[in-house]
Structure formats: structure tokens, C-alpha cells
């Protein structure tokens, strides 16, 4: 069930850096990056980030996506190294105000 899954993710990821994550998580994260990097240039640009976000959820305006991208990007792109670091933080940091929470666009309040 969902609680059991979340408990497993917490046990495997809480407080860990990317390098300390289980191999299956690292494989998934890197594959996800390659999927988002549509043009294959080794980084995620603003347009790729926007497309990835809207493929999961509807947004009222593009500006909220641009703001999220500014939080996670280094200049005008998001490198694989930065993506891996932020993804590990997203999985392992319970602080909902951390920058990594913008990795998938603005998340709705639950």
C-alpha cells in the first residue's frame, strides 16, 4: 500500500546524498533526466522543464513554471549533476520549503 511504499522510500532516502541512494533509485533518476532532456544536449532548458511539468499537471500560467525553473537551474539550464542532487534532496529532505521541491514545478498544497 501507499504508506508502506512511502516508508520504504523514507528509509532508503532520508538524509542521504545522491551517491548514497540505492542503485535502482539512481538508475531511475538518470533515466528521468534523459527523458526530460529532449534535445539531448546534456542539460534541461526552460522549454524542456515547462513541457515536463505540464505533462504531469495543469497550471494557470507559465510564469509559475518559470519561477520554479529559476529556483532549480544554474543560469539558463539544469545540469545532470544538479538534477541528481536536487532529486536526492526532494526524496530525503522533509523540509517542504527546500529548493528541491521546485524540481517538478510548483507543487500543490495538500
Instruction: Describe the global form.
Output: globular
What percentage of residues falls in helices of 4 or more residues?
Answer: 40-55%
Question: What's the count of strands?
Answer: 2
Number of helices: 5
Secondary-structure element string: HHEHHEH
Terminal residue distance: 19 Å
Low-confidence sequence ranges = none
Mean pLDDT: 92
State the strand order across the main sheet: 1-2
Structural class: mainly alpha
**How would you characterize the largest beta sheet?**
2 strands, antiparallel
As a whole number of angstroms, the C-alpha radius of gyration is 14 Å
Seen as an oligomer or otherwise, the chain set is: single chain
Strand content: 5-15%
Amino acid at each position: 500500500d501507499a504508506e508502506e511504499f512511502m516508508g520504504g522510500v523514507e528509509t532508503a532516502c532520508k538524509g542521504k546524498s545522491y551517491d548514497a541512494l540505492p542503485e535502482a533509485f539512481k538508475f531511475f533518476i538518470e533515466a528521468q533526466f534523459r527523458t526530460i532532456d529532449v534535445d539531448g544536449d546534456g542539460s534541461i532548458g526552460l522549454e524542456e522543464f515547462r513541457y515536463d511539468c505540464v505533462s504531469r499537471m495543469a497550471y494557470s500560467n507559465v510564469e509559475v513554471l518559470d519561477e520554479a525553473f529559476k529556483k532549480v537551474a544554474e543560469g539558463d539550464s539544469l545540469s545532470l549533476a544538479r538534477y541528481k542532487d536536487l532529486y536526492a534532496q526532494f526524496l530525503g529532505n522533509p523540509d517542504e520549503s527546500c529548493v528541491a521541491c521546485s524540481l517538478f514545478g510548483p507543487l500543490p498544497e495538500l
